[in-house]
TrEMBL record:
Keyword set, alphabetical order: FAD, Flavoprotein, Oxidoreductase
Pfam families: FMO-like, NAD_binding_8
Protein name: Uncharacterized protein
Keyword Oxidoreductase part of the UniProt annotation: yes
Family: Belongs to the FAD-binding monooxygenase family.
Gene3D superfamilies in the record: FAD/NAD(P)-binding domain
Organism: Dactylonectria macrodidyma
One of the record's GO molecular function terms: N,N-dimethylaniline monooxygenase activity
InterPro entries, alphabetized: FAD-bind_Monooxygenase_sf, FAD/NAD-bd_sf, Flavin_mOase-like
Amino acid sequence: MSGQGEKGQGQRHKAVIIIGGGFGGIAMACQLKRKLGCTDFCLLERQSGIGGTWRINTYPGIACDIPSPFYSLSFSQKPDWSTFFAPGKEICQYLEKVVDDFELKDKPHLDSEVCSCKWNPKTKLWEVTTRELLPGLGDLSSAERQQILETKGPSSVYLNETIWTCTLLVSAVGGLVEPAPWPANVAGKDKFQGKVIHSARWDSNADFRGKNVVVVGTGCSAAQLVPRLLESDYGASRVTQLMREPPWVVPRVTPPLGDNFYERWSPLLCSYVPTYMRAFRALVALVTELDFQLFGASRSSKRKRDNLEQKLLQHMGETVPSKYHEILTPKYSIGCKRRIYDTTWFPCLHDSRIELTTLAMESVDENSVTLRPGPKTHPTEKNLETRSVPADIIVLANGFAVSRWFHPLEVVGSKGTTLQEEFDERGGPQLYRGTALDGFPNMFFLFGPNSFTGHSSVVLGLENQVHHAIKLMRPVLAGEAETVEVKRPAVIKYNEEVQSDLKRMVWNGGGCSNWYVAPGVAIPCHTRK
């Protein structure tokens, strides 16, 4: 751990503190050094390593569903991606190499849980309180750590507490951090004698061979991991997959000239012909971003959605068993929820060992799960009787807790109010360009509300936010200004424009519920807004 800038025992000072060691934190660290020549900063990371989402998610089959050349930092391209859609481990290795290339290995402070960030109006500094975790405990979910804390006491979780001060504070806390909890309406978890595993905290020691597995969810993670459970490496005896609503499933695109050409020749071309690498990335970015035409309310957008939906329904009909055709037909517009880019989930539904159902999980016993018709059950299954299915392992692929931004981080601004209180008072999460808020001087947010749609590369919007923040940090770090803060009228005006625009988008009128939209406020926005 770097001890530069210490101000006495248990207190340290940095010009800039970055919270989070994933894509956002690493991008900000690189640009602080590249653009501003600033080296007096650190990254506070709760996990035991850098990489964020791509380090902590290790479930079978995890991979990016955005083409690799576009899902990478523009100023630090990787020429030799192994596939067009990189596996999670390779993305994590890429981020580690970026840190090495920019000589930032001394910047991350790992196993550091940020408890609170408070603005001190007298010193014009942020005071950041952290607790050092025992190695490895930062990789657990907040609920798992809390359970250890309650049963074994603070010494089983924490080593010491440190108060940092900094001139500028950056939150690079991602939204896909905390696993969604066990469904509150499902009783009997304590009775269950098998393993309960969340896809976001995979247990690599779990033995699936010959086991009866119940998978809760049919989102992106579930679509990647379920086929793997049926392969010889895992060898599950039976998989029962529970679905609330069918996703729109898009056949995964192939690179120009095919996968074999890309995997064999693209690393060589990108390594030795830099112009080719830049041009290829630009082409991939253009094609990916053109998808945004699907999400508007114009006649043209609706026509494009209708045409694409017909093609995808035809693909589904040709790919999955006929018994699943009705329950896999979405009743909402494409784009309202995040799409699944699939090459293996639909085909695996032909395997006799898997059952897909819209029956709801009612309760859990020692070695079984009770299913019954519920509010989301498809009409074709409404008349089915309540039944039990054997279960040795339950896999929760039910997503992440994304309803509260930056939770459980407590951020107190210049008015003495918390970030969450400000959001509540304003009617929902909102930031200026997803990056700043009045009352929180010298603080910048990455991955903030109204920043990303989930339908394209998050890295594009992320780099735009970093670029915006860097320009505003420059005068403060140069000593030309003491503080920088967006004005409240600008925040209000910007949010009104965003909300007006988003009322006409598919996320609000597409006929589904989704995690893009908070009660009374729309979350996503075009990354170029």
